[in-house]
Design brief:
Blueprint (H helix, E strand, L loop, with lengths): L4 H28 L10 H56 L5 H22 L20 E4 L2 E4 L7 E5 L2 E4 L4 H6 L1 E2 L5 E5 L8 E4 L13 E7 L2 E5 L5 E6 L5 E4 L2 E6 L7 E6 L2 E2 L1 H13 L5 H61 L3 H26 L8
Antiparallel strand pairs: 1-2, 3-4, 5-14, 6-13, 7-12, 8-9, 8-13, 9-10, 11-12
């Protein structure tokens, strides 16, 4: 085999360049603190690092979403607690207004406070998160959901309950919509509502008792019609008489799974309609109660109408308070879930960070030792090449 002078020089140079490349790579590792700085350094390890870093990035999104959900739900819980206090105060005022010792002037003063409480409840409905979003507006979080004008409150949000991804395949609702919390509350007993006819001349007051048997009641309307002050008939939705009986003040009238109680003194020709419950907002309940208390009835019929309005409001306020408690319990459950998930995600995040560190981060002690060895080898190669390059085959001919 012939070894030319050019080959001898080229092999020596290649050895030095290779050693310089290894030394430069070690310098780069020490500068960056990473084992792999280019895919070409170690394709398999580089792919593993990318996979782990992607997992860490996704984990940070879960943690961020969890923090955001906790912040929004904490604001909502506080708003619901405050709203509950307002509703309880409104109920206290309604009870006070229902007593015979409270005259027209006292009821008008109560109505003034009710208007103030209505404004307060509207402001609670417009509560904002720390990010400036309206927490009860649904997906329309940049839109003020409630507007009060002339006693009437309108809702400008939507019914979309936004959810956040807080873990692989795990979502949580970050809030509740204003229409679900404040607007869509069934009146009456929640299944049916009973109301006196507008043309009644007696002083009868009606209410639907809780506990309607929904396995019997099919949703049809019916009417209690008084043929005289002591006798009533029950007419179905086709005006067919399906029952009747003798009237006893405070007695229970039952039909089709529905139980009714009528008090006062109905007159012949008076009637009371029973229909499926409909939605009534918490704001409308307070407004209607204030309207009723602003009346100054001077007749028994007027006083009966005012009593009916107060009784209806008391029943509806109970349902409003129950709704607030239900939503608040749901929020508390979600907060507990978020805390549990957060603890689990912190453990997962710590494990992922540890794996990333093991695969990506440099062992500085090992790298420094390797650098010294590579520098020594490079220096030896350079010195050897310096000696060899002065030799020629012609020196031995």
């Amino acid at each position: 085999m012939r070894i030319s002078t050019q080959m001898l020089f080229q092999q020596g140079l290649n050895g030095i360049l290779d050693q310089q490349a290894r030394t430069a790579r070690t310098f780069e590792q020490l500068a960056t603190g990473r084992q792999v700085n280019n895919v070409s350094d170690d394709p398999v390890k580089a792919a593993r690092i990318q996979e782990l870093e992607r997992a860490v990035s996704q984990q940070s999104v879960y943690v961020s979403n969890n923090d955001r959900a906790q912040q929004r739900l904490a604001v909502e819980e506080n708003a619901l607690a405050t709203a509950g206090t307002v509703v309880r105060r409104v109920r206290e005022l309604a009870v006070q207004a229902s007593t015979d010792t409270t005259g027209p002037d006292g009821r008008r003063l109560i109505a003034v406070e009710l208007r103030q409480r209505l404004e307060e409840l509207t402001a609670i409905g417009n509560s904002q998160s720390g990010e400036g979003e309206f927490i009860f507006a649904g997906a329309q979080s940049q839109t003020r959901p409630f507007a009060l004008q002339g006693g009437a409150v309108t809702y400008a949000g939507d019914s979309v309950q936004r959810e956040l991804l807080i873990g692989p395949g795990t979502t949580v609702a970050e809030g509740d919509t204003g229409d679900a919390v404040f607007m869509r509350i069934r009146n009456g007993n929640g299944v049916v509502a009973a109301t006196p006819a507008g043309g009644n001349s007696g002083t009868g007051v009606v209410r639907a008792e809780p506990g309607t048997d929904t396995t019997v009641y099919g949703g049809a309307s019916f009417t209690i019609s008084f043929t005289d002050a002591e006798t009533y008939e029950i007419l179905d939705d086709t005006s067919t008489v399906v029952g009747g009986g003798s009237y006893e003040p405070g007695g229970t009238i039952s039909y089709n799974g529905v139980r009714l109680v009528i008090n006062g003194e109905p007159q012949g020709g008076d009637s009371f309609a029973v229909a499926p419950a409909r939605n009534e907002s918490a704001f409308a309940t307070i407004d209607k109660l204030a309207d009723a208390l602003e009346m100054a009835p001077v007749t028994d019929l007027g006083r009966a109408q005012q009593r009916q309005a107060i009784d209806d409001a008391l029943s509806q306020l109970d349902r409003v308070e129950n709704r607030l408690l239900e939503v608040r319990a749901s929020v508390g459950g979600r907060l507990n879930t978020l805390e549990d998930v957060q603890a689990a995600q912190e453990d997962v995040g710590f494990t992922l960070e540890k794996l990333v560190s093991e695969v990506r981060d440099l062992d500085f002690a090992e790298a420094a030792s390797r650098l010294q060895q590579e520098l020594f080898t490079l220096q030896a190669s350079q010195q050897a090449f310096t000696r060899i390059q002065g030799n020629s085959l012609f020196n031995f001919i």
